[in-house]
Amino acid sequence: MDTRAIKEQLKEIEEELKREVLRLCGELGIRDKTLRNFEYKTISLCMLEIRTENGRVYRYQQLKGELERGKTITINNWRHEETPFRTLNRLINLYRATKGVMKANEYLKREPC
Q1: Residue 112: what pLDDT?
Q2: Chain-wide mean pLDDT for the chain?
Q3: pLDDT in tens, 29-39
Q4: How far apart are the C-alpha atoms of 90 and 88, rounded to whole Å?
Q5: pTM for this one?
Q6: How far apart are CA 38 and CA 45, in angstroms?
Q7: 68-108, pLDDT tens digit by residue?
Q8: E-state strands within 2-66
Q9: What does DSSP assign to residue 39?
Q10: Distance CA 102, CA 13 (A)
Q11: Angle, vertex CA 59, rays to CA 55 and CA 64, nearest 5
């Protein structure tokens, strides 16, 4: 298989992954443009726990995005009981896979055919 064919296949895979990530963003109600433009270095799920003075505990799950500068931004959050864990884990895995394929495509663009 030559390099040109590999480039075409990777481009198709990248486009399909991007479509799926955007679909999942819509399903989760995420409107973050930085996420939709694949500008975060990576995304992850974090847990936030807030304790009040009277002893009540509120738990939240936060979807965080890490920028190239190392700064993290909260993209969206959900109450722990209402968190769609499966969908979020799928989104995170697909986003990371998309970034990997994008990096491979960039590398192949620099390589001569």
Answers
A1: 65
A2: 93
A3: 999 999 999 99
A4: 5
A5: 0.90
A6: 17
A7: 888 999 999 999 999 999 999 999 999 999 999 999 999 98
A8: 42-51, 57-66
A9: -
A10: 10
A11: 140
Cα separation, 27 vs 20, in Å, equals 10
What is the distance, to the nearest Å, from the Cα of residue 99 to the centroid of all Cα atoms in its chain?
Answer: 9
CB 43 within 8 A of CB 73: no
pLDDT at 2 exceeding the cut of 90: no
Q: Find residue 57's DSSP bridge partners.
A: 51
Q: What is the pLDDT of residue 52?
A: 96
- Is 72 in a helix, a strand, or coil? strand
- Give the torsion through C-alpha atoms of 6, 42, 65, 31, to 10 deg: 20
> Burial of 85 by CB count in 10 Å (0-12 exposed, 13-18 middle, 19+ buried)?
exposed
Which pairing describes strands 42-51 and 57-66: parallel, antiparallel, or unpaired? antiparallel
Q: E strand or H helix at 99, and its extent?
A: helix 85-110
pLDDT digits (tens, 9 = 90+) for 43-59: 999 999 999 999 999 99
User: If you count them, how many residues does the chain have?
Assistant: 113
